[in-house]
Amino acid sequence: MKIIIQIALAFAALAISGCAITQSVRPVTSTDIPLLCVKKNSEVFMAQFVKELQSQIDARGIKTRIYEGDKPADCRYRLEYAANWRWDLAMYLAFADLRVYDNDLLIGEANYDARAGGGRPDKFGATKTKLRELVDQLFARH
Questions:
Q1: Euclidean distance between CA atoms 90 and 87, whole angstroms
Q2: In angstroms, how far is CA 102 from the centroid of its own chain?
């Protein structure tokens, strides 16, 4: 009986250890962004996501404006994003990607990926909290 428990624990440890949540951030290099235009991504189906993103960037002292289609002529700096959620007992943010550009030059990016998070309980949590961590690191120099 003892050996069966040990085998079961070994398999459980293997299953959990194979589950990964990754986060990578390359902070924005510019320290003076008077206006950041955020391109609305119609493939992100959570309406509150862009509002929360805008609110958190605004809280860092960077004025934001949402746009659709082509970048407005007066937008030197822009942010493009992607995000999706999954269901596993509850909805959770599975993936978020934020990219900041100075005209067409990528100057910062942040990525959160819990798609391989399988059995990890820390994949759950408010999108707002996970997004705040990315935004804080992305605009750490601002």
A1: 5
A2: 20
CA dist 57 → 4, 32, 46, 90 (Å): 52, 13, 18, 27
CA distance 8 to 32: 55
Closest of 3, 45, 28 to residue 138, by C-alpha: 28
Domain region containing 91: 20-138
Query: 24 by DSSP, 3-state: which?
Result: strand
pLDDT tens track for 28-83: 988 789 999 999 999 887 778 899 999 999 999 999 999 999 999 999 999 999 98
* Domain annotation covers residue 15: no
Residue 139 CB neighbour total at 10 angstroms: 25
**What is the separation of C-alpha 69 from the centre of its chain, rounded to a whole number of angstroms?**
22
Reported in sequence order, the residue ranges of 1-142 that DSSP labels E, i.e. its strands, are 20-26, 35-39, 63-67, 77-87, 91-102, 105-116
Angle formed by the axes of helices 127-138 and 47-59, nearest 10°: 40
pTM (2 decimals)? 0.78
What's the total number of domains in the chain? 1
